[in-house]
Each structure stands twice: as C-alpha cells, then as structure tokens.
Amino acid sequence: MLLSIAFTRLSFAQISKISQDDINIKARFKIPVFKVPNFEHCKNYDIRDFGARQGDKESTTTAIATAIALATTSGGNIIIPPGEWSTKAIHLKSNVNLHVSAGATLLFSGDPKDYLPAVHSSWEGIECYNYSPLIYAYEATNVAITGKGTIKADLTVWEKWFPRPKPHMESIKNLYNWAQEGLPVEQRFMVNDTSNLRPQFIQFNRCQHVRVEDIKIRNSPFWTLHLYLTKDALIRGIDIYAHGHNNDGIDPEMSQNVLIENCVFDQGDDAIALKSGRNPEGWRLKTPTKNIVIRNCEIRDGHQLLAVGSELSGGIENIYVDNCTVLPNEKLMHLLFIKTNERMGGYVKNIYFSNIKAQNLKEGILGIDTDVLYQWRYLVPTKVKKLTPITNIYLSHIQAEVGQFVSKINGNPELPIRTVQLQDVELKKTTSTAIQNKYVNDFSLHE
Q1: Domains, the chain, ranges and CATH?
Q2: Per-residue b or e along 364-384, where b marks 16 or more CB atoms closer than 10 Å to that residue's CB
Q3: What's the whole-model pTM score?
Q4: What value does the mean pLDDT take over residues 303-312?
Q5: How does DSSP assign 101-130, residue by residue?
C-alpha cells in the first residue's frame, strides 16, 4: 500500500522554456507515469505592465487577457503582484501559468454579467452552456495556477442564488430532459433570468498536463475546483475555505491520472467528490474517473472526506486515499460515502482507503447507499433503469472517536454490492449498531 513519487525534468521541444515534471506513483493499481508543466524558466508577464490597476476590474481583466494571449505562444507566467486586484472571468490558455504572488489577492467580481458570454460547461453532471467559471481553461495543454497568494470570490449575488426555488428546479428539470432526449449541448443554453446555475470557481475542461499548487481559495459560487474530462493533473498544497451551497473542495469528473496531496479543506460540502457524469451524459461520453490518488490531506470541515457519486454514470475506478486527518467538526457525516441510484448505471470498483484519523462523525466511517436521488426523485421519473455494480472496496487502518456506525450499506437486492473488506478499522464509541448492512456479498471486518 506504500506510495512513492519521483520527479524528473523533461525538455519540451516545442515550447523551449517550458519543462515537464514526471509524476510516477506506485499504488495498489497501475498508474501510468504522467507529466505536469513546470514554468520555472519561463518569461514573466507582470499584469501592471499591461495596464492593470488595483480597484479597477476593467483594466485588470484586460491586462490579464492580453498577457495570456502573449504567453500562450511560447509559455509564460502571468504574475499577479502583491495587493488586491479586482477582475472578471479569467480564461486560461495552453502554456500559461497564472501565478498569484504572496501577498496578492485576485478578487473575482460578484456580478454574473462579468461571466458572459456563456461557455461550454456543466451542471451537476450534465453538459450545458452556462456562466463561465471564474477561472476557466478549455482544451488547454500545459496550464497551471500557482503561488502563495489568494483567489477569492465576491458572493454578493451568488449567495442569493443558493436557495433552489421552483423556477431554478424547473430549469434543471429541462436540462435533464434535454440530455435524455439527446439535444445537442450547444442548444442547452442555461443563462436566463430564472435558471441561476452558479458557475464553478475553477474549471479545467478537457485539459491535459495541469498543475495547481500552493494557492489559497476563499469562497466559491458552486464547486470549487472542477477537473472535467481532464488528464494528468497535480493538485498540491492548496488551501480551500468555501462554506457556501454545494461548495465541494475538489471534483474530479471523468478525469484520469490525478494526484491530490498536502491540501487543506474547509468546506460547506464534501472535501473531495469523485464524479463521472449524470445518466445519459456519462453513458454518452464513456469516460470513467480513474487513477486518483489522494494523500496527506487535512479536512477541517465538510460533509465527507471522500464522496463517490452520485453522478457516476461513466464509472469510477482505481482510487487510493492514504494518510489523511479529519479535525473535530460538526458536519462530517462519513469518511467514505459511495452513493448512486437506479438511474445512474456506471460502476464503482477498486477503492482503497487507508491510514485515516478522525474525531467525531455524524454518521459513520463507511456509507454506501444505492438509493440517493435528492431532488431528482420528485422532479422526473425513472426513464431508463440502470443499476450500478459496486465491487472491491477496501478500508484499512482507520481510527475515529465517535459515530453511529462502522459500516452502513444499503445495497440493491437485484444487484448486491460485492467484496467490502475492513481491516483494523476502529470506531471507539458507537452510538448505534456498528454494522448495518443489507444486500452485500463478501463483507468482512478484521482486527
């Protein structure tokens, strides 16, 4: 179960100043060596040289866009210097590193109009055209966000959108039906007066060779860091505080070869949530989330350390979580929660979860539920029934102080969950029945 990681430098011939670091991880499953960009020797583009002025979002937005356009041709660092800089949406391109210097804050506007025109994005596992994520990269290669500074979202308007009134629910119902009917994504336009689909803070959409390192993230309209259809990503040393509605920390969705390490999560929702598309979207794109390693992270607050689903129609496999610590908090429900329903299909397999220390749990250590539908239960009926096979779930060396249960598995009688093994998993004080399982084959618990 031991992991090791090595870094070597490879010259990148087409872009003379960009090098790539090899990420070589050993786990219980095979992960190919993958590469992430290193911009140490690239040219710096200080946004002040392009007319950026503190307190002026227009000049700063224009300066950042101009610098990115120049840097993408040969590779470069977009330098955000110390001070607070107001901005609209930032669209990163290939061969660009957005570097937020120590003492710098990028403050993103709270006006939704500053995130138009709409871009190719997604909402809870369904593709659509929506407000641009605050930082957005689409089909980019060699792209990064680094630095000791802070990126922050102004929630003045977004927090008014946190509730989900009837017009919003009708809009996502329409989106769901459009996806079921096969309506082209370009026609799923979700920007109007009533949909109020909040954008992600950061989205890497269909990108490859991604690095996010050291930055602090404060507040988020929706999911905080969304890796969507993205391959080969290193997320290291970031610090997230986001307590709004749906404020997951990191959401790898239909993404592969991802290392998340040494991060701090203080969330209003799940610390890390693995996803792979909702219903027809996952079936259409046929891209599982796989080869995800999460280690040496600290969870200060949130709903789950790791959530798997409920959007998992493309499949989720080869996940390793190791050496993470959960601090005392009032919200944490489970350490590992796998959730799906009769509409999802997909699959879950090969989940390894080890060396975790936690305090109090509202629910328990392991939860698996095959009947999680949330608002969809009453919004739309089941149109296509596809069950989710869940197999090979391994937990070892887990310690928690207080919780209701060690394991609560609600399987499906038509397709029982198979092979769940717990070894040296200790909940010091259980406030309910320790093992609450049904419809699971080959379950074992060993000291």
Answers
A1: 78-446 (2.160.20.10)
A2: bbbbbbbebbeebeeebeeee
A3: 0.96
A4: 98
A5: -TTEEEEE---GGGG-S-EEEEETTEEEEE
